[in-house]
Design brief:
Keywords: Signal. With 322 residues, this protein is an alpha/beta fold. Helix content is 47%, strand content 18%. It folds into 2 domains: 176 residues, Periplasmic binding protein-like II (D-Maltodextrin-Binding Protein, domain 2, 3-Layer(aba) Sandwich); 96 residues, Periplasmic binding protein-like II (D-Maltodextrin-Binding Protein, domain 2), CATH 3.40.190.10.
Length: 322
């Protein structure tokens, strides 16, 4: 009788321990795989450059890193920067000159991933200086004393235009820059309101469709494979949330790699978040989406920012770049 009771007790204990083990295994399994994803909002602009992050979200690269990604469209970097500073956005997309200027003004930012870069190929880049079809201007050196449209004054547009002028032997001191939104530039060039304009895709293709001539591939003339933009956060957020930053960077780099190696898929992605007509999307030149942080070209932009009076002292790129 005692033997029977002992056996029954042992079996009961064994079953109980088995159930506990199963419960613990289930708890640990769900704890790792079903952990609530971190909500992350990124401020972006509805332009060609940000196709990789849209593609990466669609492919699940951010989800695999435990990130619940929201992409918030803004009209420009002027709206993105304060939203990142306030914490409304955890990350943002900006051109490098804007980040350099912001850093020099005491805004402590940290680049976490490349955004996009020039292809480095004259004739096959996404940015150029264009002039009306009947213009006598034949090169960047001829822009001295002329009126040139850029989307923002004292930013990457006018500094790279000036760099292209210097390379061509021109004097940029007398050039007059006027601020125009990119969508307004094709008409301004066509009707002669400006002597020239700095345009990026899709407006480069649109202006050329209207007969405009390219006189300089300004990004190519400024630096080799110039990194034009990046994804960034505040130094404060990077310090307090290093794991999220690490995972965001990993997902972003995977997105950049995928877009670079599946360029036609990235091209089609433009139809999901921009209003670019399909026939134009099919013909535009895409930027390079390398994961490399081009420190050399960023230093060139920083030097130009000093030379052209955008900043008063040499920026601290060591704290800005990873």
């Amino acid at each position: 009788m005692k033997s029977s009771l002992a056996m029954k007790s042992a079996l009961t204990m064994k079953s109980a321990l088995g159930l506990i083990a199963l419960a613990l295994a289930a708890a640990f399994a769900t704890g790792s795989s079903a952990r609530a994803a971190d909500k992350v909002t990124v401020g972006v602009i509805p332009i060609v450059d940000v196709a990789p992050i849209y593609l990466g979200k669609e492919k699940g690269f951010f989800e695999k890193q435990g990130i619940d990604l929201t992409l918030q469209l803004a009209q420009g970097g002027a709206a993105i920067v304060p939203s990142v500073v306030s914490g409304q956005y955890q990350f943002g997309f900006s051109n490098m000159t804007s980040l350099i200027v912001a850093q020099s003004r005491g805004l402590d930012f940290k680049v976490v991933a490349a955004g996009d870069s020039s292809t480095g190929k004259a004739g096959k880049d996404f940015s150029a200086i264009v002039v009306p079809k009947d213009s006598t201007i034949s090169g960047a050196g001829d822009l001295a004393g002329k009126t040139v449209a850029v989307n923002n004054l004292k930013n990457i547009g006018d500094t790279t235009v000036k760099a292209a002028m210097r390379k061509a032997g021109g004097d940029p001191s007398g050039v007059k820059f006027v601020e125009l939104a990119f969508p307004d530039m094709p008409a301004a060039v066509a009707n002669g309101r400006v002597d020239a304009a700095w345009v990026v895709e899709p407006f480069l293709t649109i202006t050329r469709d209207q007969g405009a001539k390219v006189v300089s591939w300004n990004l190519v003339d400024t630096a080799d494979r110039l990194m034009t933009a990046a994804y960034f956060t505040t130094a404060r957020y990077a310090k307090s949330h290093p794991d999220i930053v690490k995972r965001f960077t990993a997902a972003m780099n995977q997105s950049l790699d995928y877009a670079q190696n599946h360029r036609e898929e990235a091209r089609r992605e433009l139809l999901s978040y921009t209003r670019i007509p399909k026939d134009v999307v099919d013909r535009i030149t895409l930027p390079d989406w390398t994961t490399k942080i081009n420190r050399k070209s960023t230093q060139t932009l920083a030097d130009l920012a000093v030379k052209d009076g955008l900043v008063k002292k040499r920026p601290d790129l060591g704290s800005l770049l990873p």
